């Protein structure tokens, strides 16, 4: 029995449940894709081939026995190498943790296991999840499946590549400043960052306590909806996780966006934007308008303060977490990473406290400016065309610093604001590299964000394109 | 504050030495961030009442339709 790797995650789960294909066939198909693509793209750090095939065979036997199946039963996935599984090495993309054996299993992996997902191994990532490009000195850079000299986006680089190149049907990323949405945009897949606190972070490598998020990279908005429904919710092991009930996100995917109101802030998101990106973004808005949504350009002056505060919080928290290793093992970091972390020690404590104290008021202000009377805020995910690995390589030339930092300019504000945000493919540039549309909603409105993303994907076919 | 003074301060406060030349570029970027934050003075005010980000998240949820 064969399995098609171009199916979406939900399509495959349905096909397995109906007996039209098997988990073993899907897993073998993924392994073939990995064997063919990984030597060039470098998406995987660890491949658990034998264990995955055994788990898939067990999943098929369970289905044959008539047992109740989970919503992701038999679906092959792999995850960013910062999600702990007890007894397994979790490198966090680093030399420092090259031999770190996880002492516990992440809640999010336990939930995926319980839903029936098959875990193929661990995926490449930016060292300690700290770059937006996909560079990795220790395990080698991940390469864009559409055009390998170009960036994959980071920090969930392997997740973006593996989903786009049809090596897996879905993957966990993490997002502190755009690390799910950027690889989704640059690799041409769908990436969802939920509301801050929506998904448990227990058993997940921290980068910034205030702004870390767990979420999926998938082929479609519908896949992201199911993935989020499985993984979201209160976790006693993560006291910061939200108590809000988890709705049936898939039920919101009606394709109907008539009457929905989309706001487009004119500040910040278009500064220095490339023409081809703006053109694709405008075409995407036209597609949503054609389905009955309204588009309004407006002013959101709070974005300037938001963009400054997000940098203060993330840099101080990142520097704090890495202080011991920076004192004792700074040579074990890639140049760009220790250089970035270092400056965080120069930020005054009062600035950090102030930036955190303004977070609630600035969220309220942004919602007043951009979401009063509106359901969704839309922006390009990346302002510019996809850069090359070479032109953003700080280790090779520190002069690349600003090009490197600019990659996450449009995604970072939504981490400070804590709003649910998705990136979906909305076009390609002349070099065959994807362009992303970013959609943000009010707190805990993941269903609304996915509703619009899904409607867009019903109207367009960008998400169905396959690299190679 | 100039970068050299900042390097001395980081060493004194955190016991961390400049790791590489690229960190000087990073330090300049951080100094620019400090200037940007300082420029916000007077535009952001603390609230008198206790507030939290989590409370703001709940308050700004979608109104019922």
Brief description of this entry?
The complex is a heterodimer of chains A (468) and B (65). Chain A has 16 helices and 11 strands.
The share of residues in extended strands of chain B comes to under 5%
- Note poorly predicted spans of chain B: none
Which stretches of chain A are low in confidence, meaning pLDDT under 50 for 5 or more residues running? none
Number of self-contained structural domains of chain A: 1
Strand order of the largest sheet of chain A: 4-6-5-10-11-9-7-8
Tell me the overall shape of chain A: globular
Number of helices of chain B: 3
- Sheet bearing the most strands of chain A, described? 8 strands, mixed
Output the CATH homologous superfamily of chain A: Amidase signature (AS) domain
What series of H and E elements makes up the topology of chain B?
HHH
**Helix/strand structural class of chain B:** mainly alpha
Strand content of chain A: 5-15%
How many domain regions of chain B? 1
Q: Residue share in helices of chain A?
A: 25-40%
For the record, give the distance between the C-alpha atoms at the N and C termini of chain B, rounded to a whole number. 53 Å
Protein name (chain A): Asp-tRNA(Asn)/Glu-tRNA(Gln) amidotransferase subunit GatA
Keywords (chain A): Ligase
EC number (chain A): 6.3.5.7
Pfam families (chain A): Amidase (PF01425)
């Amino acid at each position: 029995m064969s399995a098609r790797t171009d199916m979406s995650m939900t399509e495959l789960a349905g096909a397995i449940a109906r007996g039209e294909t098997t988990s073993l066939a899907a897993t073998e198909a993924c392994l073939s894709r990995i064997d063919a693509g990984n030597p060039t793209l470098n998406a995987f750090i660890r491949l658990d081939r034998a264990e995955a095939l055994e788990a898939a065979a067990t999943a098929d036997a369970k289905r044959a026995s008539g047992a109740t199946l989970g919503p992701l039963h038999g679906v092959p996935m792999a995850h960013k190498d910062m999600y702990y599984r007890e007894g397994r090495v979790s490198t966090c993309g680093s030399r420092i943790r090259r031999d770190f054996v996880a002492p516990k299993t992440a809640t999010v992996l336990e939930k995926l296991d319980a839903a029936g997902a098959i875990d193929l191994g661990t995926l490449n990532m930016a060292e300690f999840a700290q770059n937006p490009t996909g560079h990795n000195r220790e395990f080698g850079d991940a390469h864009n499946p559409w055009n390998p000299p170009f960036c994959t986006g980071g920090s969930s680089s392997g997740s973006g590549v593996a989903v786009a190149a049809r090596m897996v049907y879905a993957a966990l990323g993490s997002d502190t400043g755009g690390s799910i949405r950027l690889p989704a945009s640059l690799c041409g897949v769908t990436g969802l960052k939920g509301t801050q606190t929506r998904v448990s972070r227990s058993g997940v490598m921290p980068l910034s306590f205030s702004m870390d998020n767990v979420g999926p990279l998938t082929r479609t908005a519908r896949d992201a909806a199911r993935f989020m429904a499985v993984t979201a919710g209160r976790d006693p092991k993560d006291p910061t996780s939200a108590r809000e009930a988890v709705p049936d996100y898939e039920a919101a995917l009606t394709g109907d966006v008539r009457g929905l109101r989309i706001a487009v802030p004119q500040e910040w998101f278009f500064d220095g934007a490339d023409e081809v990106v703006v053109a694709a973004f405008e075409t995407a808005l036209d597609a949503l308008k054609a389905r009955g949504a309204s588009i309004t350009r407006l002013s959101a002056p709070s974005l300037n303060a938001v963009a400054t505060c997000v940098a203060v919080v993330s840099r101080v928290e990142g520097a704090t977490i890495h202080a011991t290793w920076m004192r004792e093992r700074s040579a074990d970091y890639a140049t760009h990473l220790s250089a970035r972390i270092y400056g965080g020690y120069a930020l005054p404590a009062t600035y950090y406290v102030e930036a955190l104290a303004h977070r609630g008021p600035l969220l309220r202000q942004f919602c007043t400016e951009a979401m009063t009377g509106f359901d969704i805020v839309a922006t390009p995910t990346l302002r510019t065309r996809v850069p090359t690995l070479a032109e953003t390589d700080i280790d090779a030339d520190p002069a690349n610093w600003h090009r490197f930092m600019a990659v996450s300019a449009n995604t970072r504000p939504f981490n400070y604001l804590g709003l649910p945000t998705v990136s979906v493919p909305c076009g390609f540039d002349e070099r065959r590299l994807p362009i992303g549309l970013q959609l943000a909603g009010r707190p805990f409105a993941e269903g609304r964000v996915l509703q619009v993303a899904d409607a867009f994907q019903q109207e367009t076919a960008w998400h169905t394109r396959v690299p190679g | 504050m100039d970068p050299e003074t900042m390097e001395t301060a980081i060493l004194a406060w955190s016991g961390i030495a400049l790791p590489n030349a690229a960190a000087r570029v990073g330090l300049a970027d951080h100094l620019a961030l400090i200037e940007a934050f300082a420029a916000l003075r007077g535009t952001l005010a603390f609230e008198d009442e206790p507030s939290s980000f989590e409370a703001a998240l709940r308050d700004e949820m979608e109104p019922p339709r």
